[in-house]
UniProtKB/TrEMBL annotation, chain A:
Matching InterPro entries: Bact_solute-bd_prot1, SBP
Source organism, top-level taxon: Bacteria
Sorted UniProt keywords: Cell membrane, Lipoprotein, Membrane, Palmitate, Signal
Signal sequence bounds: 1-27
SUPFAM superfamilies, per database record: Periplasmic binding protein-like II
Name recorded for this polypeptide: Sugar ABC transporter substrate-binding protein
Organism: Streptomyces fructofermentans
From TrEMBL, chain B:
Family: Belongs to the binding-protein-dependent transport system permease family.
Origin: domain of life: Bacteria
Ranges of residues in domain ABC transmembrane type-1: 93-286
Name of the protein described by the UniProt record: Sugar ABC transporter permease
Major location (coarse): membrane
Gene3D superfamilies the record matches: MetI-like
One Pfam family it belongs to: BPD_transp_1
Organism: Streptomyces fructofermentans
Segments passing through the bilayer: 35-55, 97-121, 128-152, 164-187, 208-229, 263-286
GO cellular component: plasma membrane
Length: 445, 301
C-alpha cells in the first residue's frame, strides 16, 4: 500500500512539476542543487532565513539562536511577511528565481500548490517521531496522503460555536448540539426578537465554508491514480450549502458578510448573538465586540447527527522547508524544534498568540488560563483541546485559491438574492475543475 | 515657432484675473456646475476625513461609535505606533522617503537628459526610441514587477535597496513629459546661441537648458515621488526583509497577521494618516516652483 501511494505521488509530482515549470530541464537543475545542498549541510555555521507572518516570531527564533541553534551553529533570521494568498505567489516567484528562503510559513490549504510547483522539500527523513505529537487529521494535511512530509504543523484552528450566554438566557434559548437544533434556535430567536439574528452566512469567508464542509465529511480534492478528483459538489458539501441556503432564504439568519464594521457593530450591540468560528475567535471578538467582554461562551460545533463528535478547521498553518534551501537538514531540525519543543511552543503561544497544533502543547502551562475575553469560562482551553482532537481530516488540492474565489463570487450573489445555494456550489465545482484542466492537471470525472 | 510656444505658455502665469478692464460682469452662480463640483469635492474629501477621525479613535471606539465622531485615542494610537516593534514604523517611513526621494530624483535626472536629447538633437532612430517610450507609457508598471524580479535575481540584487530603486530610474512617462517640455521651453535659438559662443553641449544642457526645464522636471519629480510612495507590488516582490520595507508594505503586514491575530486596525489607520503628511508637505513646498513661468524672455518674440 505505501508503495503504490508513493509511486502515485511521484508520478503526480513529476507531471505537475513539468507542467508548472514548463520544462523538465529546470526540474533536473533543481534536483542537482538538492544533492549538493545535503552534502554541505553538516559543516560550518549555517544561516537560515524564515518567512513568517506570526507576530513575535523573531523572538521565538532568538530562543533557538541562543539555545539549540548555538550548539549546532545554526542561526535563523525571521523576515516578517504578510499572510494570505499573496505570500504564496511571492514564494513561488522567489522560487522561480531559486531565491526562496530556507523556511516558509504556509497555510495548510496552500501546501498542495507549493508542492506541485516543487517549492517544498520532502523532509520525511529528517523528522522521525514528530508525527505522534499531532492529531492524525492535522498531520495528514502535511503529507498530502503520501509517505512524504512537506511541512510540520504549527497552529490549528479547530472550529467551535460561540454564543452570547447572557442573551441566550434572556431569549430562553438552548445551546444547539445538532445543526437541526441550530436551525430551530435561529427560528425561535426570530420569533422572539425579529430584529435579532442568531448569526450570519458570510460569503466572504471561504475558509469557514470549507471547514463546515470538512466537518460534514467532504473531501474536496483527492487523487485517483495520477488524476485529481474534485468533489466540491458532492453530498456532504451539498448538505452544508442547502442547510445555510435554506436558513438565509427563510430569513432565519442574516446574509451579510463578516469582518465588516457593520458586522462588528452587530456583535457588539447584541444584534447578532452567536458566531460559528474557530479557537482564535477570542482575539477577533476583542477588537470586534469590545463591549461584550465576559458575556460570550464557547461550545462544541453543532453536529449533523446526535451521537457524532466531529469538527472542522478554519485557519492554521505549518512550517515548511523549501527546495531552494541549501541546508535542508538544519532547516528541518529547526522546524521540528519550533513546533514540538515545549519552550518554543510556549513562546509561540505567548508572543504570537497562536493555538499550537501539537497536542501536548494544547494543555501546557500557556493554556491553563482562559483568554482574557473569556474569563467567565475557566475551562476554555481544556474544552478546546478536547474539541481539537475531533478535527476531521481535510483534503486540499493545488488550486484552493480558485475554489475560494469562485466561492466568494457565486455565494455572495446567492446569499444576497437569497437564491439557490446548490447552483452556486455547482459553479464552484465547475470552475475548479476547469482551472485544474487549464493548468494541465488530469482530472478524473 | 519657438516664440509661439513661449507665448502659448504665458497664460500659465495666472495673472489674467483682475487685468480685465471695464466693469465686472454681474456674476450669477451657476448652480449645477457648482453642485457637481461640491459633490466631487465631498467624494474626494470624505475618505480623508474618515481617516483623520478614525485615527483619533481607540480600539474599542473604532467600530462602536458614530463614524464621524472624533474619539479619544489619538495620543494612545501614536504611542502604540511608535512602540510597535521598537519603532519599526519610522524605519518604514525612512525607507519610503529614500525610495521615493532618491528614486524620483534619479528618475527626474534621467528624464531630463533623455527628454532634452530627444527634443533637441536630430538623429536616426529618434522617433523609434520615442515610440518605444510611448509604448512604455501605456504599459502598467505592475506587469513588469515579476520580470524585473527575475532580472534582479540574475544579478543577485534581490532584497536590497537597489532592487527597488533601479527599476524606478527609467520612467517612460517622465521622459515623455520632459521631451514635450524641453521642446516647448528650450528654444533652439538659445541652444544655437550657446554653440556660437563656444559652449560645450554638456554646458549648454546644464547651464542653459536645465534651468529652463525646472518647472517641468518638478512635475516629473512629484509624479514619480507620489507613484513610488504609493507603490506596492514592486517592493512587495523584491523585498523580503521587513527592515527594508516601505510604508505601504509595512502597513500591509500589520493588516495580514494570520487568522490567529486580529488586524491592528488602529495602528494601520494612524500609520496611514501619518504616511500622507509628507506628501501633503511636499506638495505645499514644491508647488511654488510650478508658478515659475518657463523662464520666458530668453528669446524676444
Amino acid at each position: 500500500m505505501p508503495n503504490t501511494k508513493l509511486r502515485r505521488l511521484r508520478r503526480w509530482g513529476a507531471t505537475s512539476v513539468a507542467v508548472a515549470l514548463g520544462t523538465t530541464a529546470l526540474a533536473a537543475c533543481g534536483s542537482s542543487d538538492d544533492s549538493e545542498g545535503e552534502g554541505k549541510a553538516e559543516s560550518g555555521p549555517v544561516s537560515l532565513t524564515y518567512w513568517s507572518w506570526t507576530p513575535g516570531m523573531d523572538k521565538v527564533a532568538d530562543l533557538w539562536n541562543e539555545g539549540p541553534g548555538r550548539k549546532d551553529r545554526v542561526t535563523v533570521t525571521v523576515k516578517k511577511q504578510a499572510s494570505g494568498d499573496t505570500l504564496v505567489t511571492k514564494i513561488l516567484t522567489a522560487h522561480k528565481a531559486r531565491k526562496g528562503p530556507d523556511l516558509v510559513q504556509a497555510e495548510y490549504q496552500a501546501l498542495p500548490t507549493l508542492v506541485s510547483n516543487d517549492a517544498l522539500a520532502d523532509i520525511a527523513g529528517e523528522v522521525d517521531g514528530v508525527k505522534d505529537k499531532f492529531a492524525e487529521g492535522v498531520w495528514q494535511q502535511t503529507t498530502l496522503g503520501s509517505d512524504a512530509v512537506y511541512a510540520i504543523p504549527q497552529d490549528s484552528g479547530p472550529m467551535m460555536f460561540y454564543y452570547r450566554a447572557d442573551l441566550f438566557k434572556k431569549y430562553g434559548l438552548e445551546v444547539p448540539t445538532t445543526w437541526e437544533q441550530f436551525a430551530d434556535t435561529a427560528r425561535a430567536l426570530k420569533k422572539k426578537s425579529p430584529g435579532t439574528d442568531l448569526t450570519t452566512f458570510s460569503a466572504n469567508d471561504s475558509g469557514l465554508f470549507a471547514g463546515l464542509a470538512q466537518q460534514a465529511g467532504a473531501k474536496w480534492w483527492t487523487t485517483e491514480g495520477q488524476k485529481w478528483k474534485v468533489a466540491i459538489d458532492d453530498a456532504p458539501t451539498r448538505r452544508v450549502a442547502d442547510f445555510w441556503g435554506g436558513l438565509v432564504k427563510e430569513g432565519a439568519i442574516d446574509n451579510q458578510p463578516m469582518y465588516t464594521p457593520a458586522w462588528n457593530k452587530a456583535l457588539n450591540t447584541g444584534k447578532q448573538i452567536a458566531w460559528v468560528s474557530a479557537v482564535w475567535a477570542p482575539g477577533t471578538l476583542t477588537t470586534a465586540a469590545p463591549d461584550t467582554k465576559g458575556k460570550w461562551a464557547m461550545a462544541p460545533l453543532p453536529q449533523w447527527s446526535g451521537g457524532e463528535n466531529v469538527t472542522g478547521s478554519w485557519g492554521g498553518s505549518s512550517t515548511a522547508v523549501t527546495t531552494d534551501s541549501r541546508h535542508k537538514a538544519a532547516a528541518a531540525k529547526f522546524a521540528s524544534w519550533l513546533n514540538t519543543d515545549p519552550e518554543a511552543l510556549t513562546a509561540l503561544a505567548k508572543e504570537g498568540g497562536i493555538y499550537p497544533a501539537a497536542t501536548t502543547a494544547q494543555t501546557s502551562d500557556a493554556f491553563t488560563e482562559p483568554p482574557a475575553y473569556f474569563a467567565n469560562q475557566p475551562d476554555f482551553y481544556t474544552r478546546a483541546a478536547d474539541i481539537a482532537k475531533t478535527t476531521a481530516p481535510s483534503a486540499w488540492g493545488p488550486n484552493v485559491n480558485v475554489a475560494y474565489t469562485t466561492f466568494k463570487d457565486a455565494f455572495a450573489s446567492a446569499a444576497k438574492n437569497k437564491s439557490d445555494f446548490g447552483a452556486a456550489l455547482r459553479t464552484m465545482q465547475d470552475d475548479t475543475v476547469a482551472d485544474l484542466e487549464k493548468q494541465g492537471f488530469e482530472v478524473a470525472e | 515657432m519657438s516664440s509661439l510656444a513661449v507665448r502659448k505658455a504665458a497664460p500659465a502665469a495666472g495673472t489674467a484675473r483682475g487685468t480685465v478692464p471695464g466693469p465686472a460682469p454681474r456674476r450669477r452662480t451657476a448652480l449645477v456646475p457648482t453642485l457637481a463640483l461640491l459633490i466631487g469635492a465631498a467624494y474626494c474629501l470624505l475618505p480623508v476625513a474618515w481617516v483623520v477621525i478614525a485615527a483619533t479613535k481607540s480600539g474599542s471606539e473604532l467600530f462602536s461609535t458614530f463614524t464621524f465622531l472624533p474619539g479619544t485615542g489619538l495620543t494612545e494610537n501614536l504611542k502604540d505606533l511608535h512602540a510597535y516593534r521598537d519603532g519599526v514604523y519610522w524605519k518604514w517611513m525612512g525607507n519610503s522617503a529614500l525610495y521615493a526621494g532618491l528614486g524620483a530624483l534619479l528618475s527626474a535626472a534621467v528624464s531630463a537628459i533623455s527628454g532634452y536629447a530627444l527634443a533637441i538633437y536630430r538623429f536616426r532612430g529618434r522617433e523609434t526610441v520615442f515610440n518605444i517610450l510611448m509604448a512604455g507609457v501605456l504599459m502598467p508598471p505592475v506587469i513588469l514587477a515579476v520580470p524585473q524580479y527575475l532580472l534582479m535575481a540574475e544579478a543577485d540584487l534581490t532584497d536590497s535597496y537597489v532592487s527597488v530603486l533601479l527599476p524606478l530610474v527609467l520612467s517612460p512617462y517622465g521622459v515623455y513629459l520632459a521631451r514635450i517640455y524641453a521642446a516647448a521651453a528650450v528654444p533652439s535659438d538659445v541652444v544655437e546661441a550657446g554653440r556660437m559662443d563656444g559652449a560645450s553641449e554638456l554646458r549648454i544642457f546644464t547651464r542653459i537648458a536645465l534651468p529652463m526645464m525646472v518647472p517641468g522636471l518638478v512635475t516629473v519629480f512629484l509624479f514619480q515621488f507620489v507613484a513610488v510612495w504609493n507603490n506596492f507590488l514592486l517592493p512587495y516582490i523584491m523585498l523580503s526583509d521587513d527592515e527594508k520595507f516601505p510604508i505601504t508594505l509595512g502597513l500591509f503586514t500589520l493588516l495580514e497577521q494570520g487568522s490567529n491575530t486580529p488586524a491592528l486596525y488602529t495602528l494601520v489607520i494612524t500609520g496611514a494618516l501619518l504616511a500622507v503628511v509628507p506628501l501633503v508637505a511636499l506638495f505645499l513646498v514644491i508647488q511654488r516652483f510650478w508658478s515659475l513661468d518657463l523662464l520666458s524672455g530668453a528669446v524676444k518674440s
